[in-house]
Amino acid sequence: MIKTDVLVIGAGPAGSTAARFAAKGGAKVILIDKKSEIGAPKRCAEGVSKKTFDILELEADPHWITREIEGVRLVAPDGTDVWLTNDVVELPEAGYILERKVFDKHLAMEAGREGVEIRIKTQAKSLKKEDDGSYTVSFESMGEVYDINTKILIGADGPESHVAKWAGLKAYTKPKHMESGAQFEMCNAKMERSDVLEFYFGTVAPGGYFWLFPKGDDIVNAGLAIIPEMADKSAYEYLVDAVNDCYATKDAQPVELNVGGDPVGGLVREMYGDNILLCGDAASQVNPLTGGGITSGITGGKYAGQVAAEAIKAGDCSKKFLKKYDELVRDDMGHDMDKYAKVCNYLWTLDDDELNSIAHAFQDIEFTKISTTELVKALIKVQPKAALKLRKMFL
Ligand SMILES: Cc1cc2nc3c(=O)[nH]c(=O)nc-3n(C[C@H](O)[C@H](O)[C@H](O)COP(=O)(O)OP(=O)(O)OC[C@H]3O[C@@H](n4cnc5c(N)ncnc54)[C@H](O)[C@@H]3O)c2cc1C
User: Which residue among 220, 319, 324, 355 sits deepest, i.e. has the most Cβ atoms within 10 Å of its Cβ?
Assistant: First the structure.
């Protein structure tokens, strides 16, 4: 039987980061992914903030950055738009559009260079808790079935996490908090500015929004996410309509279709247990308002790897020891997740007319700095209903 200190299931951004930091901390680590090519297919619009690279302790690399972002355009259902670009406002959360297929692979390579053993095209099928507390996970790879025994198991297996379910952790995302996303990567798009992210709100994407994230030249990720309970057709059907109705994409051609779930209910109840940690989408480490999970998943992955290595060194993989991971994550992102979940719930109550009137009022506001929090503060200023619900948290 293969034995290891730390076994990470899932080589997305969260898992590769967890594996790398666990190895940096001196643990023997195996990283597993069912895909034959790490990072492909992507399920992502590929936007990240620049702070992600500080968390990773890596330089941003032109090999996996397709575009630097200089602003955002917010579009109401009636077409009223608000441009917020860094020639007029400060954009502290500005970032990049990645090439995830290259980026995810690069993160796994960084883990490999740190001494992590990587096994691709290897799918976790089940797990068993041993009497000494360790986990034995059964895998299938190229027709072969085998087991790996680990002192600490890190579940980084994405939004549909089986690890969490198999281990019996309370890590369930309610259907009303699981967004369904669909996206085309397209060429021949006619964006007004190819360095500005565009967001379209309202019935175009119930419970979410339609986005255009430019990847350079005439290439764009045109996608949307919806809450199925609030919608009357599939995310794919909304996407086809949105793309056909949008000036920038009506003549564009798809070269890729990406579909996937995005958990937006805030952190799951149990991110850890005896000998086990969850990180990334598996722990719902996703901003409930934007649906962005790369930066927060990497943050969670880093903490998971660091705490796992400490536990191995201390010879204590108990729930009591691993609680430190939960504390680090909740201190770092718990408060923001709660805040943004409230804003998200509030936005879901607005109809197209209300969104239009907010956009009209936004046109009279002189923004000096743009971040998610600054936008919510502006919303509170122009919408008495918003003030009632959100004032305490943001002002
Ligand atoms: C349409 C869409 C657009 C998005 N756009 C953005 C965006 O612009 N910016 C942003 O920050 N976030 C975005 N997100 C969210 C973002 O993609 C995720 O939050 C992020 O990928 C989570 O990383 P992760 O490592 O936790 O999981 P994942 O990237 O999902 O990786 C999980 C890995 O686990 C592997 N795996 C699963 N089960 C097993 C198994 N049994 N055995 C072995 N391997 C397994 C999978 O193959 C996969 O490689 C978007 C999501 C969607 C759906």
Answer: 220
